[in-house]
Amino acid sequence: MEKKTGASATATVAAPAAEDHVDRMLLVWKRELPDLDLATEGIVERIQKLQRYLDRAMNETLAEFKLDRGEWWLLGALRRSGPPYRKSPGKLAEDIGLSSGAMTNRLDRLEDAGLIRRLPDPDDRRALQVELTDAGWQAWQDSVGAQARKEALVASALDPEEKELLNGLLRRLMLEFESQSGKLAHHEEKAAS
Fold first, then answer.
1. Three-state DSSP class for 41?
2. Do 53 and 107 fall within a single domain?
3. What DSSP string runs through 49-109?
């Protein structure tokens, strides 16, 4: 049995050949919670389970490169800044949501590992800039490549059209979540005033 997912769908999704863990759990919920929207629960459970698998793979990758997630995010923030891969500590803290104290500790560890260096800010003698070293650039590049290979193995279950379709569907869910989150924040602000 094949199911079209909408008028604009570019791919079809075949009925599953085998049951996964979530299917077995949904059977229990169908019996115990007959009013529960099982389709929604299936979506949410599968996204959460996949996230746990991806988190485990990422933790393994980071351990291989002797980085923690926070250090990896900081290296990534510098890398995304583009050449010369340099930012102020304050801007980095803002980008990744850290206090200045937490940022200082993280910078100390990365500098000790030779992955970043602190340089005087050429525009302000009182300030510093944080720069990605060649070793830091390479560590981030290699860790991203290793993780991307693991993620590609998971995504290889889908053909290119299915990947495009899934990305479109997940994008719609993200946009709805972002929209609802904004509405919720607005209501909370109004209630507080």
1. helix
2. no
3. HHHHHHHHHHHHHHHHTT--HHHHHHHHHHHHT-TT-EE-HHHHHHHHT--HHHHHHHHHH
Same domain, 83 and 119: yes
Q: Which domain holds residue 54?
A: 18-64
Residues 6+ apart with CB under 8 A from 165: 5, 9, 10, 11, 13
Span between the terminal Cα atoms of the chain, in Å: 54
94/78 same-domain check: yes
Can you give the CATH number for the domain in which 76 is found?
A: 1.10.10.10
C-alpha–C-alpha distance, residues 59 and 124, integer Å: 38
pLDDT in tens, 131-190: 999 999 999 999 999 999 999 998 999 999 999 999 999 999 999 989 888 776 665 666
On whether residue 166 sits in a domain, the answer given is no
The domain total for the chain is 2
Q: How far apart are CA 170 and CA 68, in angstroms?
A: 28
Q: What predicted TM-score, i.e. pTM, was given to this entire model?
A: 0.74
